[in-house]
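In line with agreed milestones, the collection of sequences with tokenised folds has grown. One record among many is set out beneath this paragraph:
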Amino acid sequence: MPSFRDVVETCGIVIDGAGVLAIVLGLVVATGRYAVTGRRNAEGYRQFRQDLGRGILLGLEFLVAADIIRTVAVTPTLEGVLVLGLIVVIRTFLSISLQVELEGRWPWQKADTPPGTGS
């Protein structure tokens, strides 16, 4: 019978795989969509970037979840938690940057607020 640690490690690996799969599928779907309709459309390149960004954002969420599961449940050491904190900070920065790129506003701004107004 597998131990709790083995089960949690396996769950972390599966979620990591789901994160990588989300990024790869996002790339494939965005590229396919651009190849079929994007080149003929004036907004095609922007749409391609947005589709790709959404795939990356989804994948990053899975990867952060897998890191949290493995760090908290498998290796709850101070060093592991510090490394997790650094990984989460870096991935959060990437996620916010991608969201600003995709939506043209900060995540805490209301959707009807024009970009650049700061409120």
